[in-house]
Amino acid sequence: MKANRLFPLTLAAALCGGLLFGQPAQAQDWRKQFPKFRYGVQAVETQAAALTRYKGFSAYVKEKLGVELELFLSAEYAGVIQAIGAKQLEVMDMGASGYAAGYVETMGGIEPLVVPTNPDGTIGYYAVAFVRADSPYKSLDDLKGKIWAWAEPNSSSGYLFPLVSFRNKGLVPEKHFGKVVFSGGHEQSIIGVLDRAYDGAVTWTNDVEKHTRGGLHMMLDRKVLNIKDIRIIWVSELIPNPVIAIRSDVPAQMKADLKAMFLNLHKDNPAVFREVARGESQGYREVDHKVYQIAIDLRNQLAKERRSR
């Protein structure tokens, strides 16, 4: 898949057993304007894994809303951000940094719909720096002169929040590490460290001990990672959980119906909910824009720094 291009699920349906369903016989209210639920998801795992993850959600959307789910995956976070700015999507599921980028891209034209909670009911998670467990590195200082991987420029835990945190503590990545690269995503970062392509990288988890949600959880759940193979050497401050956001210009009843669907998903279909929420959770809950203002401020801070160079 080419970078920065969206991959609509309709194009993959034939390869994946036909995940989409026909339009309802009698569309009504907002469904006349939006006969498909166009949903953009950031690239936090492989395309094949994501398609499998959302297969049950397609049927659930059809059952609850009477419309098709048209899932868009992007090789880069920017693909989803640009698509919602171009009104090719109505809803996106993004991290705090991705939401901030979408908010700027649409000039304030998106708003939070719901956020997944953690098993304890909180709505935050952590960026974690990690290395191979059999490496000699025990701290960020030990990685001086080594190869470091960020996940993606629009990733909250894979770039924005740890970058600002490093700089605030006096660690300038471009000067501290011998080489700094973007892996292309969280899973690529983890695999790259395991394969010794990178000496250290960052990903995300809600719990640094149990990993019940997050990038590490998804790979552990698929049994493509053994937690004993990596060592966490740094943990960030709390970051707001990824948010499901919707365009502000869609009908109010559409917002209400989609919000109700997400809020009830954990009770209606726990198995589908667990896949869509990417791990263990008490369910979705409503969230206000102000929770994500910190990400907008950090992005603006970095943009200002770049302009002043």
Number of helices: 12
Overall helicity = 25-40%
Radius of gyration from the CA trace?
19 Å
Structural class: alpha/beta
Order of helices and strands: EHEHHEHEHEEEHHEHEHEEEHHEH
Strands, total number: 13
Q: Strand order across the biggest sheet?
A: 1-3-2-4-12-5-13
Query: Which class of the largest domain in CATH terms?
Result: Alpha Beta
Q: Largest beta sheet, briefly?
A: 7 strands, mixed
CATH architectural arrangement of the largest domain: 3-Layer(aba) Sandwich
Give the name of the CATH superfamily of the largest domain: Periplasmic binding protein-like II
Net shape: globular
User: What is the CA–CA distance across the termini?
Assistant: 35 Å
Q: What proportion of the residues form beta strands (DSSP E)? A: 15-25%
Q: List low-confidence stretches.
A: 1-27
Number of domains: 2
CATH topology category name of the largest domain? D-Maltodextrin-Binding Protein, domain 2
Mean pLDDT score, rounded? 89
Note the topology.
Layout: E1 6-8, H1 9-12, E2 36-41, H2 47-53, H3 55-65, E3 68-74, H4 77-85, E4 91-94, H5 96-105, E5 110-116, E6 124-132, E7 147-150, H6 156-168, H7 173-176, E8 179-182, H8 186-194, E9 200-205, H9 215-221, E10 230-235, E11 239-240, E12 243-247, H10 252-268, H11 270-276, E13 284-285, H12 293-308
Parallel strand pairs: 2-3, 2-4, 7-8, 7-9
Antiparallel strand pairs: 1-3, 4-12, 5-12, 5-13, 6-9, 6-10, 6-11
